[in-house]
Design a protein that fits this description.
Structural class: alpha+beta
Bound molecules: flavin mononucleotide
Oligomer: single chain
CATH topology of the largest domain: Pnp Oxidase, Chain A
Radius of gyration: 24 Å
Distance between the termini: 12 Å
Largest sheet: 7 strands, antiparallel
Order of helices and strands: HEEEEEHEHEEHEEEEEEHEEEH
CATH superfamily of the largest domain: Electron Transport, Fmn-binding Protein, Chain A
Strand order of the largest sheet: 3-2-6-11-12-5-4
CATH architecture of the largest domain: Roll
Number of domains: 2
Length: 271
């Protein structure tokens, strides 16, 4: 069925000229320090993260980029999908005074961005710029490099994350992991806001994608395994000897996590 859908889509492309290429990226609120020591706060979505480094795409002429060139500390605050209206309250304002000519029609100057958004500043621990108290995921960071973009319309801010704060309800108790089931970033896609959908799979590197203990033990001992079937209530796994031959044991898995694990394995093998 999926293969059929993919073939249909493949035959139906056409060339378009979309006004933006905002495919769908989590929104963040970047806090920076204004020249008078107050905090600026701006919504953005352009970014990627690798290791402890964050790379943000911030427009030239905005107060946020100006601030970062002068004061090289920031917080990057990820709101939950349910908080989208706070983000939208900042969509028509800039911390830049006077408002740049190319923004004058659509933006007004707002020196009190936290208040305007209906959000509260909360002191950071390692940087002098506040966090957004209500954001479930808050990153304290220091600028390592700012590189002008080729087209002159944005700067690439490479920032090292020095501290991460996660709301209790999105962290896995007793660990340093975010629970992806509990975390609902606000997704910005072609100028519309979305919550994420349900999980469709995971990559094997996920610290939460642990195999059932019996399967893990078998594999560690050099044996092989194969998920045979999965339904709503259980999954069946064959454990076989390392020579690939004889089935030594048939496991029936019934916990929610084990069934989910088995479903992912079957999908990977099938695809
Ligand atoms: C949902 C959303 C996403 C945005 N993404 C970006 C972005 O990735 N980079 C950027 O520079 N501006 C982005 N903007 C626009 C800035 O928020 C806007 O230019 C704002 O005026 C910047 O404020 P500042 O001048 O106080 O820094 C986005 C705005 C919204 C509402």
């Amino acid at each position: 069925m999926i293969e059929q859908d993919e073939r249909d889509v493949a035959s139906k492309h056409r060339v378009i000229e979309p006004s933006v290429l905002y495919v769908g990226t989590p929104v963040y609120l970047v806090a920076t320090q204004n020249p008078d020591g107050s905090a600026n706060l701006a919504p953005a979505s352009s970014h990627f993260a690798l290791g402890r480094m964050l790379v943000l795409g911030l427009e030239e002429g905005g107060q946020s980029l100006d601030n970062l060139r002068r004061h090289r500390e920031l917080t990057v605050n990820f709101p939950a999908a349910s908080q989208w209206t706070h983000v939208e309250r900042l969509a028509g304002v800039t911390g830049k005074n006077p408002v740049p000519a190319d923004k004058a029609e659509q933006y007004e100057f707002e020196p009190h961005k936290f208040q305007r958004a209906g959000l509260s500043p909360e002191p950071s621990e390692l940087v002098s710029v506040p966090r957004v108290a209500q954001a479930p995921l808050q990153l304290e960071a220091r600028v390592r490099r700012i590189t002008p973009g080729v087209a002159g319309i944005y700067g690439m801010v490479e920032a090292e994350v020095v501290r991460v704060h996660a709301a209790e309800n999105i962290a896995v108790a007793g660990t340093n992991h975010i629970n992806p089931d509990a975390w609902h970033p606000l997704i910005y896609s072609y100028r519309h806001f979305y919550d994420r959908g349900g999980e469709v799979g995971w990559t094997r590197k996920s610290p939460l994608a642990t195999p059932p203990a019996a399967v893990d033990r078998w594999e560690t001992a050099g044996g092989q395994w194969r998920v045979v079937s999965v339904d709503e209530h259980s999954a069946t796994v064959e454990l076989s000897r390392c020579d690939g031959g004889e089935v030594a044991e048939i496991l029936t898995l019934s916990s929610e996590h084990e069934i989910r694990w088995a479903r992912v394995q079957l999908a990977i093998e099938g695809g």
